[in-house]
Amino acid sequence: MYEAEAEGLRALREAGVRVPGVHSVGISGNEAFIELERLDLGGPADWPALARMLAKLHRHTGPRFGWERDNWIGLAPQKNAWHDDWVGFYRDFRLIPQLERANLMKESEPLLQNLNVFFENHKPGPSLLHGDLWRGNVGFTREGPVIYDPAVYYGDREADLAMTELFGGFPREFYAVYEKEFPLHGQYQTRKHLYNFYHLLNHLNLFGSGYLSQVRKTLGFLLRAL
Predict the structure, then answer these.
(1) 177 Rama class: left (phi>0) / alpha (psi -120 to 50) / beta
(2) Is the pTM of this model over 0.85?
(3) Of 132, 149, 156, 160, which is the active-site residue?
(4) What is the DSSP string of 126-151?
(5) Which one-letter DSSP state was computed for residue 92?
(6) Each residue of 100-130: pLDDT tens digit?
(7) Calpha distance 51→183 (Å, rounded)
(8) What is the DSSP string of 170-219?
(9) 175/110 Cα distance (integer angstroms)
(10) Own/partner pairs for 87-90, CB < 8 Å, 24+ apart?
């Protein structure tokens, strides 16, 4: 887990994003550890700067979708492989593992069989993603914004934007600046629910039935949108 986190942080840094530096990863006695740069997160909340930084990250693209190794989304394993088809990758490596764990495959079959409906006029490129970009994984130093605790892979940048709207969301000024820097495509307001379905399923599987109603509500919305 720590090796995957270190790899993700290094990839984000190489793409020009401010993240904690990785000092070392290893085992001491019976304990695994990751040693990171200590950051003072007492700086002003510069959301426009964060939007510009994220747009810069998303312009960093790769040749294919996916990642070279499995990693983690919170405390859950996140499967990866290289894939030429974004819809196939998202179905097979994001939705299906979570749906199987949640025992929701049967009622989700119509969604899985018709995912292409959400992408009829949207052909995303493989942008480098943070992968777990909620408000708790963002901070601000005196020098500007910093992001951490990634679950990186190459995918549709809308997946990162969608998660910023979960669990409290980001301020309006963040979205206004991002839209100016790197405008979103049409139908994002529908697709964001598809992308957040993955994270809601993950929370259901990690933290229990308190998330079940939100998962079912989102699934119902997506089925009606087909």
Answers:
(1) alpha
(2) yes
(3) 132
(4) -EEE-S--SGGGEEEETTEEEE-S--
(5) I
(6) 999 999 999 999 999 999 999 999 999 999 9
(7) 12
(8) --HHHHHHHHHHSPPPTTHHHHHHHHHHHHHHHHHHHH-GGGHHHHHHHH
(9) 32
(10) 87/115, 87/116, 87/119, 89/65, 89/155, 90/115, 90/155, 90/156, 90/198
pLDDT at residue number 186: 83
Question: Which residue's entry shows tokens 């969608």?
Answer: 162
**Assigned token pair, 40:** 């003072």
CA distance 215 to 204: 8
Joined together, the tokens standing for residue 154 give: 């190459």
Largest Cα separation within the chain, whole Å, is 54
Catalytic-residue membership of 92: no
Please provide the distance, in angstroms rounded to a whole number, between the alpha carbons at the two ends of the chain. Answer: 37
Structure tokens belonging to residue 157? 């940048």
The 10s digit of each residue's pLDDT in 56-75 is 999 999 999 999 999 999 99
Q: How many CB atoms lie within 10 A of CB 97?
A: 18
Rounded to whole angstroms, how far apart are CA atoms 188 and 147? Answer: 23
Q: Which two tokens stand for residue 138?
A: 């963002």
- For residue 162, the one-letter residue type is A
Cβ pair 132, 5 in contact under 8 A: no
- Tokens 């039935």 locate to 209
Helix (H, G, I), strand (E, B) or coil at 38: coil
